[in-house]
Structures are given as C-alpha cells and as structure tokens.
C-alpha cells in the first residue's frame, strides 16, 4: 500500500514531466535533440539545435537549456542558449524571447494574442519547432536584443551576417564539449 501511495505521489508531482521523454522518442523532430541534464532533475533539460538549412545559422550546433516550472504544463519553461548566438529574439544573456514561451493570458502591451502565448497543450516539440522557425525568420518587431534587431533590419548581409557566422563557427568548435 505504501508503494502505491508513493507511486501516486510521484505521478502527481512528476506526471507531466515523465511523459515528455517517451513522447519525444516516439515523434522525433528534425533539427534538434533534447534530454535531461541530470537524471535526478526532471525539470532541467539540455537541447542541441541544428541551425536550419538555407539560413545564416545553417551548420551551427547551438546548445540551450530548458528549465521547466514545478507547475508545468500550466506555465511555460524558460529557454536559455548556452552557446553564444546573435539573434534579435535572444537577449545578450541567451534568454529566448518568443510568444510561445510567454506566460499564458493577455499581453499587457497588446502585441500578442492569447493564443500565441503559452498554452498547456504545447510540448517540447512545439517549442523547438518555434525556436527553429525563429532562427529562420526573426521577429524584428519584438526584439530581445535591440542591437541584433537593428543590424538585422539595416545591415543583414553585412555586420549581422558576420556576427552570426562567428557564432556558427564557435558553436561548431564547442558543440560536444
């Protein structure tokens, strides 16, 4: 009886997290891999994102961490690039700023619709697909890195491209450290 209660409490606490890994293995998505950083911590994941083809990020191997809140899936995880990346929607600390990772509900600035923000039906796959899409098509209207957004708008094939190329090279050198 005690074992059954323990199993129920483990499922109550970790249930949504325990379902993530088998789901990822069952439905792999091209362009990224994900897994636990530490087998004893279901809330911290490491992801490797391959720069999408035909973009400035092509060939890059970017490492990031996903940190899930205890009340996941009611609230979104936070995503932070560990590998340096120059992008309008990634701040200088590596934090990713896209609608799908914003708290659910109304946007106090009126920029995002509620359905564009976090919903409990989102998964690691939908987050990664959104991040890969973000790499392919930055949102210059809602930048987390104003300097990168300005360069992307004004000098995409000059300074912006050079900085991204440096990040791609650096990511290749450090991808499997």
CATH-derived architecture: Roll
Shape: globular
State the CATH superfamily name: Ubiquitin Conjugating Enzyme
Distance between the termini: 45 Å
Radius of gyration: 18 Å
CATH class: Alpha Beta
Instruction: Give the helix/strand class.
Output: alpha+beta
Query: Would you report the number of β strands?
Result: 4
Beta-strand content estimate: 15-25%
Order of helices and strands: HHEEEEHHH
Number of domains: 1
Helix content: 25-40%
Do you know the CATH topology?
A: Ubiquitin Conjugating Enzyme
Mean pLDDT: 86
Main sheet, how many strands, which sense, barrel? Answer: 4 strands, antiparallel
Separate helix tally: 5
Q: Mind explaining what this structure looks like?
A:
Its EC number is 2.3.2.23. Residues 12-173 form the UBC core domain. The active site is at 97 (glycyl thioester intermediate). InterPro entries: Ub_conjugating_enzyme, UBC, UBQ-conjugating_AS, UBQ-conjugating_enzyme/RWD. The protein is of the alpha+beta class and 177 residues long. The protein has one domain: Ubiquitin Conjugating Enzyme. The protein is built from five helices and four strands; from the N terminus they run H-H-E-E-E-E-H-H-H. It has helices at 2-18, 20-26, 124-136, 146-154, 156-174, and strands spanning 32-38, 41-50, 61-67, 78-81. The protein is globular, with a radius of gyration of 18 Å.
